[in-house]
Amino acid sequence: MFWRGTAANNPIQVVQVAPDPGGVWGTSQTITMPGNSTQGDLIVLTVSSYVSALSDLTGITATDSAGNSYSLAVQSCYPDGNYECVDLLYAQNIQASGSPITITVNLPGAVSNGNTDDIDLFAVEYSGIAAAGALDQTSTDSSGSVSLPVTVTSGSTGTTQSPYELLVGAMVSDSDATTMIPIATGTPLFTATLPYGYAWTSAADAIVSSTGTYQAQWTLQNSQGTGGEANGWGAVVAAFKGVQTSSGLTAASKIVLTSSAQSKITHQCSAAVNVVSETSGGTAANVTSDQSVALSGSGLQFYSDSGCTVPISSVTFTATASTTQTFYFAASTPGTITMSLTPSTFSALTQNETITLAQYTWIGGGGNANWSTGANWQGGSAPTTSGTAIFDGNCTSCNATISANLASSSNQPNIHMYSTYTGTITQSSGVTAYFYSMNVDGGTYNTGTGSLYVNYGFTQTGGTFNQNSATFIAWQYANMTITGGTFNGGTGTVQIGNNDSGTDGSHNVDVEGGTVSFNNLHLYNTYTGTYGGDTFNGSVIVTGNLTVDDATETSSSTTYGGINGGGIIYVAGNITANTGGGGYGNIELNGNNNSQTFTGASTGYLPNITIAHTGTGGVSLAGTIAVDGSWTYSSGTITPGTSTVQFGIGNAGDNSGNITGGSGLNFNNVTINNGGTDRDYFQGTITIEGNLLIVDGIMDGQGSPTTTVNLYGNLSMIGSSSQIGGYFSLNLNFVGTSAQTITNSGGTFLGNYYTIDKTSGSVTLDSAMYTTNYTDFTVQSGTLVLNGYQLNVNNDLTIDAGGTIQCNGGCGAGTACGQGTGNMTCYSFANNGGTVTP
What we know:
1 helix, mainly beta
């Protein structure tokens, strides 16, 4: 049974109803509309089902003979041994055909499960519904066994968006003593006639004429009115948006401004400006076709957000969107400015806005260019410790000079050079200036030989910034965002942070859509709180030197500071890392035909490093260079000197690194100190001219091509978590002519190939060496001295003709260690003409 409610001045009409043809047991059910349908209408299906499993309803679909597409609006189920369910499906903006539409509902889930279910259908066609985005709000509720009588609801929808909407409610309840009475609550809801006899499912509709939250509501009672029990119930409601009609009943015929004229200062973001589409009678209503409303006004800029950051040039009313459109404006010039709104077809609107010149706007009326001259500023005083210095087109003499120190570290003004500014601001030589924030959208700013401090943020979208030889300091929480204009680094230094461990905070350097060039870059962020560090996005080119004096990471787990971001710092000069927090950012040495020096300190932790030097010269390594990430060799000559390169900074949360290179990648000393079981993956052919020390962490290969490490110095593993090998094979060759030692204090030799290939000299065990996981050991040339310690080779031990093993007691000449006697044990032993001495 289907009950229909009413509403006054109803623009939504019921076209036809297809009642339940009678339930069927199966996986599909068919219903036919009684008459021909009208193109553009809405069909709503109420599907009640008794299913063996909820998954029977997975992917429930409906198709019809006119080729319309149906979507699921809402569903509710409750358990009753199996499940009782009610679904609402709908097809909007339907296509008609020359005969009544036949609709088929399918349960593909039931087909997959091999189940047969009971299916009942109602179908109703409505006119006056939005052609697109018709479904607005839904709600659903359900319950298990309840005593009768009881009132049940679908739960309340969210607030509807259109002034006229269709509400369709449906419910299911399994009790042969239950009568379902849809009742009206709220303003207005469903009304219906009391049905006769038993009904296990029902549906009702109503049209509402105002926005609000709505619910479908029923009373369940015994057919005699008292007592009894229902095994459960499920209820749903869906709200569909009404569309405008050509009669003008709900169609808008004009737009009106509902917000008053405003008085603002230049560049101040306005309050919200609201525009409403209305009928000729003044009722808010949707338009029948899209109305794009162009926004204009001399000196006005328009925005979609209350912060005036997202520019727009128009707002658009559509048949299904809200009847109110909102925008904001800001003005660059003072005066009474006429704001015009010009719709596509409706009559245009105008409103006068009053704009006054903001205080601290540079007008240049003081007879000179001095910043400190009050008459050069709107309001008669210069911004020296607070306020915002505004440079735009409202000046007669537009050039300005900062000839004396400006502000201090305690109090600073802002400065904003707007895109309409065409003058030049000059900071005289030797002068120090402080700004809280700095925006360069137009004009030119010239620094001298002093310092320029920006406390909170530097943003450049246009204009020109000439640093010359000054030091530019982005301190405390200052970010640098450069999306346009020209930043000339000159011969100066850009300093990020100001050696203030308490207030420096985090810094971002964002370069969108290109690159920015600095001369020298000094990272001096010593903030030790959580989430410090410097984040680089985009390409930052350092034509001079990079110095890192950031806070040293001391956390035992995750690194919060350091150099981060997806950008790359390209350094053409030298790098000096004194202190740092590691990170996951990227630094590339890309000098060309010059000599670069890369100097580190034991606490100067750095992020990912790439060597990509070209031409003559090369990169010289010095000190202890600590890397919390990867090291990639691309090109150039590396001179390692007496340096040590350390991978990992001794924290359990260190970043695993990839050490990748060709034949030109060489180090002096290498230390691995990942503070746990994190891995460093070596790939290619790598030369270590000094010693290899594994404090903690894993030195592993990296698949194809096979990793080869040529070691000229000593190998030491001193941590219980130290390990060589693991996931991939690694060839570790002991080479050269100097005496070498192997020392292990609790580490693991896992799954590698160890080769002694020395033209002279020996490799001496300073502790027992036990290998695991199919490890091979070959003495190709040179001498392996066991020094009285145990050598246990998990796989093959081979001595070639040029090789010698000195047992130092415990095994005789020629003894096959595969017998498991003496100081040598292995899985297999091959003596290819080598020598084993006792």
